[in-house]
Amino acid sequence: MENGQEKTNFSNFIEVHRSQLEISGVPERFWPSVYSKLENQYFDAGQKFMLTYVDIEDAKTEEGKTVGGDGREMEKPPTENAPSKLKVVVSHEEGVDAMDGDSIYLIDHAWTYRFTEARIQLQTVPGLLPRMMSLMGLAQSDGQNQDECIEKVLAESWRYSRTYSVNAQGLIAEDRQPVWYILDEFGSQILHDDTPSCRLVPFFYVPHQIAYSLLFPLRDLEYGDDVTVDYAFPAQDSLMRQIRLLPWQPCDLTHIDTVQPEPDLDYMTRVCNCISPEVGANPVLRDISGQLRVYSDHPQTLANLHHPRFEFVDKEEEADILFVKETFRDFRKLSNDTHQYVSQFPGEKLIVTKDMLALTSRRAAGKDQLGASCGPKWLPVTFDLWNNLPQFVSYFQQQEKKGAPNIWICKPFNLARGLDTTVASNLNQIIRQTETDVPKMLWHEFPGHFNQQNPGYEWDEVEASIHDMIQEFFQAAVSKPPPRGITHCPWSRAMYALDIMLKWDTDSAGKKIIQPVLLECNYFPDCERATWHREEFFDDIFSTLFLGDIKDRPVKELF
């Protein structure tokens, strides 16, 4: 930093990248070197490190098994046809000084992708597939075609892939989805150790709009020392570390109980995060006999509500009804002061977030033949990987031992419209992922179409089973007192959309039936298509919720 311009450039670099450097735990002594090496594209790791082979004798465990440098048991000793595992060691005779500000190194990324695009990239990007096969040590067998090679790379990629997300202000949800990357041929051979010698972190360089990785020592290194990182970082719990390392160190965890206990009251209180109403024997409700004033922050409501009994106002305090998408928390104010109606329920997060929906739905459980509790037939076997990853791994491995189907839909908690939703049957993939239009048809056409396509099964019967499922779901949601259940609130009126799938099943008599399955319950759903199909859709909603009038409305009363 010899001149004023360099100091200014460095200051600008820090202003833009400080949060990344701090969150990644990059010591401040390395920051000037990070700036200089990125600015000059200076990749000098080769001056301090080299690739060498894992020594087979050193790789022997006390039990006599042969393991690779990542701790994974090797089926056979290395031969000419099965080369040994590579590792990275210090090649500089004077070693690496951890306190030297220059002891931080740029590692390039060989492949950056989103999972949904990985296959097409392997098919179309010239040279990518053979490079990945070489990097992963995958041999192409005689007669093996391109698709088979791609499957091998995709399956093996979870041992090599790392992830980051860009969370800059102004980005849309699609751009915030996780990005996966595989380090170059050098970086991909940096192996795991529970007591690592180095840290390796992704770093997004804003001027180039490119991500690199930063490698820096955690202690002084001598010539010949292994360069290792902790693949399970930052997990500290021994069981969670064991699970995080499963892609490289397989082990049997089927002894873990798969029952998912409900979280404690403190956790549930944090989830609900609202001020409950005070409901007396005679709650004060607003008169609904006259014109009702509506305040809404929802453009679809503002554009499509035309019922003559409702009029919009610009201020919340002037409204009888708060039809709002923004989270409402102070329900006590409704009960004690304003007595306004609101389009939300206290505690509704129990049904509108994916993790809580499964927990709530399990309360509608029945009993199996042995008398043990089991979930309702309309709830797929579901695990919250944030809180119940060990139970899931045990269940997956038990299914695997039985030879039972093991295909899973993986969804993030907080993204809508199916963003970052994947279908997986690879346990390594699912573990690593924890580190983050249909044909248009009118409603009245669907039953006839369904009956034609499924002779012997009437849509009316399927629809009735869906209605039963909806009843059971909402009964489960109010079956426990708050914060474990939705709070009784006479001022609340809400609309939810349920995502439902139909599957083949058998009833208690062994008869083949069509079983509805609940996937999601969406708060304040997108109603654009509904208004296309029926212009009076919002009139129907408001008449039902706030006037209690369903006459001549396409509404089915379930309770």
UniProtKB/TrEMBL annotation:
Residues 62-78 have a biased composition (Basic and acidic residues). Residues 84-252 form the Tubulin--tyrosine ligase-like protein 12 SET-like domain. Coiled coil: none annotated. Residues 62-83 are annotated as: Disordered. GO terms for cellular component: cytoplasm. InterPro entries: SET_TTL12 (IPR057954), TTL/TTLL_fam (IPR004344), TTLL12 (IPR027749). PANTHER family: TUBULIN--TYROSINE LIGASE-LIKE PROTEIN 12 (PTHR46088). This is Tubulin--tyrosine ligase-like protein 12 isoform X2. It comes from Acanthaster planci.
